[in-house]
Specification:
Elements: E1 2-7, H1 11-19, E2 24-34, E3 41-48, H2 55-64, E4 81-84, H3 87-100, E5 111-120, H4 128-131, H5 136-152, H6 159-165
Parallel strand pairs: 4-5
Antiparallel strand pairs: 1-3, 1-4, 2-3, 2-5
Helix pairs in contact: 1-5, 2-3
Length: 173
């Protein structure tokens, strides 16, 4: 298993997307910092099996499920980043980001940064979506991202999670 960090949207949203994938083991949401950046931003750490899902696919899904080209006012809280755990993983993430740029009309703002620290969220809010799929926040904010996952990356969705995703309200899909 390898570890990578991802940030760019609220950690509940990002966590739900990546908990839904085949080849992803543990997902922890919380606050991440990168080397050279003092401030922490919302994000996740995930452990994945590179034989089942590669870094390129993880980054591609990440870019499509958050505003990777928008330099909005909350970017300090939601830093669009891949947090790499080694120089090799950081270089691989940079290559992936460059290769994926042609799929987007605007420049991708997502950076490949070196992981520095992680502070997990409280235990009670971990696995937020799958513990509370009917809550208004889940329906309004997380479900649209999961609909993108289901429509564009259906072959990557874990069959154990698929039944929940297929129950999303029709007007959100």
């Amino acid at each position: 298993m390898e570890t990578v960090g991802l940030g760019g949207s609220c950690h509940w949203c990002t966590e739900a997307v990546f908990r839904s994938l085949k080849g992803v083991g543990e997902v922890d949401q919380g606050w991440l910092s990168a080397q050279g950046h003092e401030e922490m931003s919302e994000g996740i750490l995930l452990r994945f099996d590179p034989a089942r899902i590669d870094l390129y696919t993880l980054i591609q899904i990440h870019l499509y499920t958050h505003s990777c080209t928008s330099n909005h006012a909350l970017r300090h809280r939601y830093r669009s980043a891949v947090y790499a755990f080694s120089p090799d993983q950081q270089r691989a993430a940079q290559v992936c980001l460059k290769a994926l740029q042609p799929e987007f009309e605007q420049p991708i703002l997502t950076q490949a940064l070196r992981f520095d620290a992680f502070q997990p969220s409280r235990h009670e809010i971990q696995n937020y979506f799958y513990s509370n799929p009917q809550k208004p926040f889940c329906q309004m904010r997380i479900s649209p991202k999961l609909s993108i996952l289901l429509s564009q990356f259906s072959d990557r969705v874990d069959d154990r999670k698929r039944h929940v995703l297929e129950q999303l309200p029709v007007d959100i899909k």
